[in-house]
Write a structure and sequence with these properties.
The protein starts with a strand and ends with a helix. Strands 2-1-3-4-5 form a five-stranded parallel sheet, sandwiched between helices. By secondary structure, the chain is α/β, with parallel strands linked by helices. About 60% of the residues lie in helices and about 10% in strands.
Length: about 270
């Protein structure tokens, strides 16, 4: 269950956002509604929250200040900013505070759904990493001879994970490691000994999105980082680095995912050099 906080000083806009977020799936619970960043931060200091969806311009404590505070105190909390200002300076600040996404008002339902799917993926990846670190630690402890019980735990597979579930996690790791390559469902199915239809349905059931949506999420997320890190590089080159040989297709996908074309994103960054 994703626990979400919605932070917006305009009550009607806040209620509408809560409604849209709840429509993104039964696995999302809006646990906090706040009219400013201070109240949201006070709530998060007392209770666990996975996702914060916040406006920028608010009284007392604005959205960017909230994002900065969360990055310092609760780096595991995922932050999505929703703003009526198409301002690249805001976007730059948001990136510095590790904001997950920056959406423009009025937020389209399909764009919000894509962002929520991306949040689901990030949470899944984080949980997977934590599980693998724990398993590795148990293995190391077992090798050092730390207790019979620890040895058993390290030498066996997690009991609540079936073989197909482990297979889907292996596919997820493969996509993470090879996202810039030409990945086809048929090749994944053959490589991991599943049928084409099973890979698509099981992946979506386990992670909440399809393998293709996950691949796009990884590619665009990396493209945004590269566009900011290397503003001198041509957009087409960045596209190729993340797996898109066709620059026009890369531009369409990037704009669909972020609301801004890679060339505009790139040009505004160059202007600040």
């Amino acid at each position: 269950m994703l626990r979400c906080a919605v932070v917006e000083d305009e009550i009607l806009i806040r209620r509408n956002m809560v409604k849209k977020i709840k429509a993104c799936g039964a696995d999302i619970e809006v646990v906090c509604e706040a009219g400013n960043g201070r109240d949201a931060l006070a709530y998060i200091r007392k209770r666990e929250v996975d996702l914060v969806v916040t406006d920028i311009q608010m009284p007392i404590l604005d959205g960017l200040s909230l994002a900065r505070a969360l990055a310092e105190e609760f780096p595991e909390v995922i932050v999505v900013i929703v703003s009526g200002f198409d301002n690249f300076t805001y976007a730059q600040q948001a990136i510095r505070y590790h904001v997950f996404d920056y959406l423009l008002k009025p937020v389209q339902a399909d764009l919000l759904m894509e962002t929520i799917n991306g949040v689901r993926v990030k949470v899944q990846v984080r949980e997977q990493d934590a599980y693998e670190k724990e398993a590795e630690q148990k293995k190391q402890n077992a090798q050092r001879g730390v207790g019979t019980e620890e040895k058993c735990a390290a030498g066996t597979k997690r009991t609540d994970e079936t073989e197909p579930e482990a297979g889907i996690r292996a596919i997820q790791r493969y996509i993470q490691e090879h996202y810039a390559e030409d990945i086809q469902i048929a090749e994944l199915a053959e490589k991991f000994h599943f049928s084409n239809s099973y890979v698509g349905s099981a992946f979506k059931k386990q992670l909440g999105i399809t393998p293709l949506q996950y691949l796009i999420y990884l590619r665009i997320n990396e493209a945004k980082k590269l566009l900011l890190k290397y503003p001198e590089r041509p957009v087409a080159e960045i596209g190729k680095q993340v797996g898109y040989d066709d620059p026009y297709y890369f531009s369409r996908i990037f704009k669909k995912q972020t609301g801004i074309s890679p060339s505009s994103y790139h040009a505004e960054q160059n202007e600040r050099l």
